[in-house]
Amino acid sequence: MLKTAAFLVGLALIFNTQRRALVSSFGFGVANAVVVAKMLPVASPSMIKVGFSGRDVLKKDRPLLPETLGLITGVFYLFSLLLFIPFAFYHHLTDTFSDGQFPHHKLAAYLSAILSIQSMLMLGVADDLFDLRWRHKFFLPAIAAIPMLMVYYVNWGKTSIVLPPFLEMGSTIDLGFLYYAYMGAFSIFCTNCINIYAGLNGLEVGQSVVLGVCVLINDYLYISGPPCPVMDNHLLSTYIMLPFVLASLPLLKYNWWPARGFVGDTYCYFAGMVFAVVGILGHFSKTLLSFCGPQIFNFLYSLPQLFHLVPCPRHRMPVYNEKTGKLEPSRADVSKCNSAVKTVLRALAKFRLIRVWEDASKMEVSNMTLINLTLVHIGPLREDHLTMVLLSLQFAWGILAIILRHQLAKLIFGA
Amino acid sequence: MLKTAAFLVGLALIFNTQRRALVSSFGFGVANAVVVAKMLPVASPSMIKVGFSGRDVLKKDRPLLPETLGLITGVFYLFSLLLFIPFAFYHHLTDTFSDGQFPHHKLAAYLSAILSIQSMLMLGVADDLFDLRWRHKFFLPAIAAIPMLMVYYVNWGKTSIVLPPFLEMGSTIDLGFLYYAYMGAFSIFCTNCINIYAGLNGLEVGQSVVLGVCVLINDYLYISGPPCPVMDNHLLSTYIMLPFVLASLPLLKYNWWPARGFVGDTYCYFAGMVFAVVGILGHFSKTLLSFCGPQIFNFLYSLPQLFHLVPCPRHRMPVYNEKTGKLEPSRADVSKCNSAVKTVLRALAKFRLIRVWEDASKMEVSNMTLINLTLVHIGPLREDHLTMVLLSLQFAWGILAIILRHQLAKLIFGA
């Protein structure tokens, strides 16, 4: 009943009498969220039947849950992006269609965004299906970014970046081919940074929703201000991000503790690509990177274990304590490390960047992920409370980045 | 060795010194064919492992073969279409890039073609994976056609068709919304017509290759002639069709009798969408329909059984005769039909449109498919010989349609 009403409100917003594209975009998001919420429980048994399933190891009874549910969100989200096309260009169709003023380059950019997101969704499903090797899947996002890079090349070919005046190297510098390498690397970063900061119910979708809200706030600051040359970029970003955030909400609820299903690599990759697309086509990739502070910290903090300077167990997720029902930091056995490494680890423990458990025969440290570090600082937490803390951190960081970005930019580049 | 050489020739053609887009397109097709040929045997075990497999029931030992191999052709084909973008627009990038003359509307059309094909590939995989119900999958092609229809709407919005002068109703008639319904229906037809004219090793890919060659011949007649307004449409069609035909050839070889793997619904849908896309964006959907004579005949001929006027067994494929190793027409038991139906069936048998086996207690007819009808006329055939006959028929019909189209058009519409 409530859902039907929400769906009808969504439809009314899509076909709003003033034909405002932004309102239509919001309407698509609302209607879509209702459809996704309805489809998730319907699709779950089919997913398990096909073999898309996994155990939730942080629960007492380790239930078998459907996987790859990000596919449902992804497919309906893409569907709404496609149906939105005539609404995005409505005013051009009615007012200036006959003068040949139609902005085909904007349509091409929008289509390339959809193509890249859809390509990543396919590659994500392929990964969930065939369990691709790490060295193959690492580069998949760069492949999925090709449509966007091709259109970037033929549409703008602009590969120069603005330099701050104090460098005294001229106002811009042309990076040429390097700029495409940068965009490819940016896509790889966006998709993998969500995928490695994961493992708790609600964390993958939650961080995506929080990042999406930060992007929308930043877009709003441009769109609501006086007309400026980058306004169109931020409108495009909003058209892509707004329905994404809304279509992710029902998945977040479904995946929230205690989860009824997992989102799969499919969601992490596909969500990462949505961010890569708005960052590149909206020309604010550096701002977007600044929102990803927790993800970047998590990645850098993980490096000693990823490079095996510190022993790295196969799974670094927190440990479920059956008695308390809470999560505790998981540990790596560092007894066999040489004394220099041990000294460094003890020093890090002084700064509370790690926790050390040591007795005469054995030395253990907490695994180096932001999730474990949070447990080290706050103490054992129930899974959903831990997710909540991490998402709050993400949001606070994002807001701080927005404030700094808009204040610092004035300082560095002038008003 | 030979494959490496072919791959290098493909690369040389892509980066041909004269920067001819058509030569690059051919080069992509050649290089792609080599990659697909190499990937098919590599991917086959993974496909079986994931559950994409089926038995070849028209063989003595009914071997288990990998399914859904059309996915391999499809993914690499899409990949080559994306990488082709800068080559397609090379002359615009170098000559007139700075004057803002870049043909963004053509880029948008090309991107929408890729999007529709990719959407259909995804839906095809979903069908092979989840075994969708017939009433759901029937409309999938119309959904996959949405990107193209949206771009058609904002790009041209032209929904009028040219009328022949003798109707005396004016030179054109605007079909409005009906034209979009027509394009949706056309997509549904193209994808399903290949899917229901199937079941023999090599038939699905073979008919697609033959249809593709007919489209290319028709395109060539326009491209090689004097400059005309529709030349660009046929260039676009060639850019899409040429690499498709070439990437399908290794799959045809792999699927040829005795097949080492099946192409899956994935290939039938995806190939059908390639035809729908060139028909719509190339503005020659009616010509394309005329090439599909055998498919249309097969569909109409099947109707009495599809509507259960004549009993329809679950499978209507020919029957494998273990003694001769040849295929014979499969039969439907019509003993329980009323006498009117029996009379009609006996009359059809007189015109050799069906075969009847009748004795005192039982009456059987050959199942009403073009495949069985061919066996009725020619007699039992080995599977590959039957496929060969059907493909020859397809090619002969296509050539006839091209000749008629170019001669008849002059008669009806004037020169």
Automatic annotation (TrEMBL), chains A, B:
It comes from Wickerhamiella sorbophila. This is UDP-N-acetylglucosamine--dolichyl-phosphate N-acetylglucosaminephosphotransferase. The keyword Transmembrane applies. Its main location: endoplasmic reticulum. It is a multi-pass membrane protein. It comes from the Eukaryota. It is an enzyme of class 2 (transferase). Keywords: Endoplasmic reticulum, Glycosyltransferase, Magnesium, Membrane, Metal-binding, Transferase, Transmembrane, Transmembrane helix. Pathway: Protein modification; protein glycosylation.
